[in-house]
Amino acid sequence: MDNENDVFKALADPSRRTLLDLLHASDGRTLTELCAYLQMSRFGVMKHLHVLEEAGLITTRKVGREKLHYLNPVSIRQIYERWVSKFAEPWVSGLTMLKAELESGQATERKPYHVNRIAIKSTPEMVWNALTDPAMTSKYWYNGSIRAEWKAGCPYEIRNPQGEPQAIGELLVVEPPRKLVMTWRLLSLADTAGEKPSRLTWDIEPHAELPGVTLVTVVHDDFEESPHTSRVLEAGLPVVLSGMKTLIETGSTLSD
User: Fold this and answer.
1) Region 111-134: what's the mean pLDDT?
2) Which residues belong to any copy of the HTH arsR-type domain (predicted)?
């Protein structure tokens, strides 16, 4: 509930909503780029960005000397599931997919990776188990059970309930319980099956300020030649992370 309150308070300010709109139009902007659109001091924009980050609505990543700001769709998805979906799912879902269809090509060209982040009341070890145990992934990863030897250089598969591969790839980095890097090829959709592999990086770290809370960050990149995969994961990863959080914290699935 506290997190929901933080989100609603962050969204109440029109300048912060403008910042979210700017990042939605072109993700991964620097402070200087964002300041150009707001008639306030650099310090004022920094304060608004801090509020958005504290609410979990944006994330930041250092790239060289620059600090880039990204939308974090996980928090927005959780608010949507809690307050919107049960009232307007058919309409909102259709409009969201249409908007993503029209805008994703331009956004992908500008910044070739997407960042998702979520806080889970659990340990890194439990999160790692949820990520690598096929019995658990089948409950939140679109019914897909993951299979792998969990060594760098080894292949993996995510299989549907019929035993057919939904996604395949190679494990590039396996450092339990903190880091997993994997290539990603989505076979279950005609538009994505023929595209080149993209990459998922999972960073699992204890929260710096909240004992017993783990921060999970997932970066999807290397999709410049895989636009359909980019679009599907941009919409799908927030659902996967929300499902993982719900399963670990409550033992239930999003559909329960």
Assistant:
1) 91
2) 1-91
What pLDDT, on the 0 to 100 scale, is given for residue 123?
96
Spell out where the chain has E strands.
Answer: 58-63, 66-71, 113-120, 145-148, 155-159, 165-175, 179-186, 198-206, 214-221
Q: What does the angle CA 193 – CA 198 – CA 201 come to, to the nearest 5 degrees? A: 135
Bond prior to 238 in cis (omega within 30° of 0)? no
Greater pLDDT, 14 or 106 = 14
Cβ pair 223, 112 in contact under 8 A: yes
pLDDT at residue 109, as a whole number: 43
Please report the domains of the chain, with CATH numbers, ordered by start residue: 2-71 (1.10.10.10), 78-250 (3.30.530.20)
Residue 88 has pLDDT above 60, yes or no: no
Q: Give the chain's radius of gyration (CA, Å).
A: 18
Q: For residue 150, count CB atoms less than 10 angstroms from its CB and return exposed for 0-12, middle for 13-18, buried for 19 or more.
A: middle
- What are 47's two structure tokens? 């304060």
Sheet of strand 145-148, all strands in order from the earlier edge strand to the far edge: 113-120, 214-221, 198-206, 179-186, 165-175, 155-159, 145-148
Residue for token pair 């538009």: 191
What pLDDT, in 10s, does the model give residues 185-213? 999 999 999 999 999 999 999 988 889 99
The average pLDDT across 106-113 equals 51
